[in-house]
Please model this.
Amino acid sequence: MEINRPLFSIVTVCYNSEKTIARTLQSVLAQEFKDYEYLIVDGASTDTTIDIVQQYKSKFCGRMKFRSEPDKGIYDAFNKGVFWASGIYVWIVNSDDYIEPDALIKLEKLIRGYKGENLPIISAMMNFISPSGRISKVYGSSLKSCQDAYKNFGMGLNHPATLVPKQIYDSIGFFDDRFAIMADIDWFLRAFKSHMLIEFPQFVITNMCYGGISTTVSFKKLYKDRQLLFKKHSRNFFIAKMHLVKWALVYFRDYYFRDIYNLNTEK
Model:
């Protein structure tokens, strides 16, 4: 690995995250492997988020860097963090998620086995945490899931459990901040189209909690994002419309069953 560069740049973007960010910070602080930098990109929070971050900063012994300023949305904040990152791998850890205690040790052991300069994207496994705080499902990716997602304009990677070499961001670009929620899908489609190497280790590295932006955004914003996504990645107008209708039907089906599931789990 390169001298004077940390192996990992962990990026947490936040805005008014006082209810969850301490858990995120603590999960990074608890890592035994220390060859990382921790970048906090705050969107000018008006609650106690900044105070909480400042309380933790000294505990990281110089590994944490912090900035707070207005942004244009979550993907603008992601881009700030990726641009700021100096590590070999960039891992975006949202402020309502928390990573496993041995995540960096497992990842470092995996990365140590790679040969050559073309480092792969790493898409590991993650726990999905229900509103009641229990693990409701464990998600993993595979080459087949990526192939299927690419054909259907979907997200083939578990973004919360995905680490990307900084050189790949430099090669294919950052996130398109015109999207409200689907810039990660757009980025995946660009990466897969560019034949970027992807590894799928079968171990859990993070916990994604219900209630983040991906689980609470409005249908109107999702629909607008889908239109932009199909416009960017489909050359056939009728196929794009077909996919849009199919996506809407699946969305309302999943939305119905998700409500039933939440009611049952909270009883």
The longest helix spans residues 237-265. Residues 8-212 form a domain with the Spore Coat Polysaccharide Biosynthesis Protein SpsA; Chain A fold (CATH 3.90.550.10). The chain has one domain: 8-212. The chain is about 45% helix and 20% strand.
